[in-house]
Amino acid sequence: MKVIYNGSPDTRAFKDVFSVMLPKMLDEDENLIYLDADLMSCLGTAKYGKAHPDRAINCGIAEANMAGIAAGLAIAGFNPICHSFGTFASRRCYDQVFLSGGYSKNNITMIGTDPGVCAAMNGGTHMPFEDVALYRAIPGATVIDVADAAQLENVFPKLVARKGVKYLRVNRKANTLMYEAGSDFEIGKGVVLREGKDITLISAGYTLGCTMKAADALAEKGVSATVIDMFTIKPLDEALVIEWAKKTGAVVVCENHNAVGGLYSAVADCLAANCPTPVGRVAVEESFGEVGPADYLAERFGLTSEHVVSEAEKTIARK
Amino acid sequence: MNKADSYALKHFALEIRIALLEELKARGFGHIGGSLSVCDLLAVLYGKVMNYRVDDPQWPDRDKLVCSKGHAGPAVYATLALKGFFPMDQLKTLNRPGTNLPSHCDRNKTPGVDCTCGSLGQGTSQAVGIALGDKLKGRPSRTFLVVGDGEIDEGQCWEAAMFTAGKKLTNLVWIVDENKKQLDGPTEEILPQFDLRAKLEAFGFDAVRVKGNDVEALYEALTKQPGDRPIAIVMDNIKGSGVKAVEETASNHSMTVPAETWDSFIAAVKADLEALEKEGV
Lengths: 319, 281
Ligand SMILES: Cc1ncc(C[n+]2csc(CCOP(=O)(O)OP(=O)(O)O)c2C)c(N)n1
Ligand SMILES: [Mg+2]
Hints:
Radius of gyration of chain B: 18 Å
Structural class of chain B: alpha/beta
CATH superfamily of chain B: Thiamin diphosphate (ThDP)-binding fold, Pyr/PP domains
Helix content of chain A: 40-55%
CATH class of chain B: Alpha Beta
Strand content of chain B: 5-15%
Oligomer: heterodimer
Number of strands of chain B: 7
Bound molecules: thiamine diphosphate, magnesium ion
Helix content of chain B: 40-55%
Shape of chain B: globular
Number of strands of chain A: 12
CATH superfamily of the largest domain in chain A: Thiamin diphosphate (ThDP)-binding fold, Pyr/PP domains
CATH class of the largest domain in chain A: Alpha Beta
Order of helices and strands of chain B: HEHHEHHEHEHHEHEHEH
Strand order of the largest sheet of chain A: 2-1-3-4-6-5-10
Order of helices and strands of chain A: HEHHEHEHHEHEHEEEHEEHEHEHH
CATH architecture of the largest domain in chain A: 3-Layer(aba) Sandwich
């Protein structure tokens, strides 16, 4: 695993990764099966789906039905992967995923695209700020929020191989480039992107870029920050969180999600139970989504490096 | 319907299309296919069928529109602006930061929008609730519900349909836009709907199928006095209807095209408008 962050965007969009990776995985494992709810064109898999209607099944605009069908396919011996936009892959089919999936011990991988502000031009009705909270609440679930294309390529097959309900939260466009292609990751193990002694900044996915930028800005102010990529929101890398909370004495979590039930909650729960530490947050506060470009929305909901810097300063002052 | 009325509705439908295309052009992209396919319906509803007050959009006794296929918002906005619910130049703010015209219909943002939709299927039950509420309050209002033929994949639509007919909610009119395509392609390939009219009839509706661009037939169907079965209208339609180049584009759910292309779409509709005006009443 090699960090090659320099602030520039990833050269590959997640959608382009899926369009190659999913067909390859399906071709290599006859027990894998992919279901979509009329959004194959949005994941770059429509062409494959057309050619392989028995391997890639378009369920139509019926996400709850799709989740139930996936559970049935699991009973029948398949390992199903489903996709829809994050809102519909979580809220719209939650009870089916929860009961027909989790409770019934049927393994289902759900891909929820366009997390949080990444839903951009589709607006508030399509903007999931609570998908992580919902999936975290399912016993035995795995919840992953990927940072870049290299991480997706390495983590996705491992996610699909796991048992239980698995939720992948992923943009379709490119995020900030973080890792060299071919980098290796382990679910349950966060990644320390840079080391510092004054504060630990924890993020994942879309907001990792602005978190790294904030660490640079803090360094200019004489504050040295550790940055952790906690792509593995559940299982959380508790040992890593505790280690760096102890080393730096203050933590800020930045997430493209509601402050309720997401990465901030997971980190705060862990620290409350293990080593009480001041924890600040940069997250969406009591708001529904709205329409606009993602960078505008990130400003609108306060998910910027400036906010991370000021929250870090405030949290250090609470030490 | 007399000739003058028919002319006026056709004229209004073309005006809606032009305003819609200008609106989408200002942003460069948008849900064009499903917006174009409801323009004739909106012209008939807002031109001659629905009872509403432009200066009092919340008037409780008004007729309501639930555009459950909320991504057709741009067509609804064009119609509302032409009717004077808000200034025409606001159309250019579609999907801009802070706009009152988001990609999907939002009752809290746009004057004249009665229901927030966008998560497909959810408008159907809300329309049932509105119609039931109006009935319980003794209001004369009718509710017009527009559902996509892809949207109707959602089981919730059929739960709402069962309730509508089962509880004899005759103040609610179902309109299904059978434009034969959803996001990933032809409905026939993704999830065939078979005979939607017969299905709705079997669910207990008085269901008819009319051409989606036939303003006279739409008017007749929309104003038919219901007996004890609620009315359902299946619009035999074309996604992108009224702009040949869009109709002929296979993937026309949402299109991103340069300004010249938008201009060519607009010019085509303007030519239709000129021809109509030349022909006269
Ligand atoms: C619950 C839900 N799932 C998926 C989507 C994404 N989506 C938006 S429009 C659309 C296709 C709609 O097709 P149809 O209802 O036929 O509309 P039309 O052809 O009139 O545009 C899809 C899948 C959504 N908005 N809501
Ligand atoms: Mg359709």
